[in-house]
Design goal:
The chain has 288 residues and is an alpha/beta fold. Helix content is 25%, strand content 30%. It has one domain: Class I glutamine amidotransferase (GATase) domain (Rossmann fold, 3-Layer(aba) Sandwich).
Length: 288
């Protein structure tokens, strides 16, 4: 990712900001810091500052530990799915008000330990309570590690922060891409995704988990090929629902529709858009 991508990002977000689903705070809607972020590999931090009238469909975590490229791609992709959006930082007040301000909370890519440390136990408990009482949780890559009871990262076992999924998140998968490299992973759709096409496709992969020890209440709508290991998992949690992705369906590698020239600028292209995966995940999370 390079600073030369910023004009593209600005144009994309300016176009999105003009639509009716949310209004963007500030003009322009971009906040740039030239200091390298502690939680990510990039030389700049670009955040989308969004607010919404009333209760948002999705609140996206954008605090410490969140990768800003994933946050941006997720914001644009969810907006294109018709969602009203708000952004969360690690402040306890915002998370305590979560049940009144959003229907779904989303944690995208980044670094799960940094997010857990920034949030602290009381804020993490607020997220668990939100889901248990009927909210939805969408976790992608780092967000999936954060949500799992057990994390196996490069063979080292640790406890997850949220325990919304009682199994294990295991990664990165060197057969897909040795960390910290990225690649396109071949996956197969089944279960809740069986009505989508194509049933076999490529999805952007960057260090995300596969899932082990699924409870009987969980299903695996996405599996890595050729291993067959679960690449996504969905399940109930109390009165709420949880959907976790190992790979990154929020990145659109068919064009720059997600507002990012990267990772296409690194030579990675995908002929199949994956917005339908996010849309199907949202449908699952909204069901009661």
């Amino acid at each position: 990712f390079a600073l030369s991508d910023l004009p593209l990002l600005a144009r994309s977000l300016a176009a999105e900001a003009g639509k009716a689903h949310y209004r963007v705070s500030g003009s322009p809607a971009l906040y740039l810091s030239s200091a390298p972020p502690a939680q990510g590999p990039f030389d700049a931090v670009l955040m989308l500052a969004a607010s919404t009238e009333g209760r948002a469909d999705v609140a996206i975590y954008a605090g410490p530990g969140a990768d800003y490229a994933s946050t941006l791609a997720l914001s644009v992709s969810l907006h294109r799915c018709g969602c009203s959006l708000s952004l969360l930082d690690s402040s306890k007040d915002g998370l305590r008000r979560l049940s009144r301000s959003a229907r779904i909370v989303a944690f995208g890519g980044g670094w799960a330990p940094a997010a857990a440390d920034a949030l602290g136990e009381s804020a993490l408990a607020a997220v668990r309570s939100f889901v248990r009482k009927g909210g939805g949780f969408l976790g992608i890559c780092a967000g999936a590690y954060l949500a799992s009871s057990v994390v196996l990262w490069e063979g080292k076992r640790s406890s997850g922060a949220l325990s919304l999924f009682p199994g294990a998140a295991v990664g990165p998968d060197a057969s897909l891409a040795p960390w910290p490299r990225f690649a396109l992973a071949r996956v197969k759709l089944e279960g809740p995704f069986a009505s989508l096409a194509p049933l076999e496709r490529s999805v952007f992969y960057w260090g995300g988990p596969s899932f082990e020890s699924l409870p009987r209440s969980a299903s695996a709508p996405l599996r890595y090929l050729p291993s067959g290991r679960p690449a996504a998992v969905c399940l109930p949690f109390g009165k709420g629902r949880v959907f976790l992705f190992g790979p990154h369906p929020e990145f659109d590698l068919t064009s720059n529709a997600d507002g990012l020239a990267w990772p296409e600028s690194a030579g990675l292209r995908d002929p199949e858009p994956d917005a339908d995966l996010l849309s199907a995940a949202l449908s699952f999370l909204k069901e009661k």
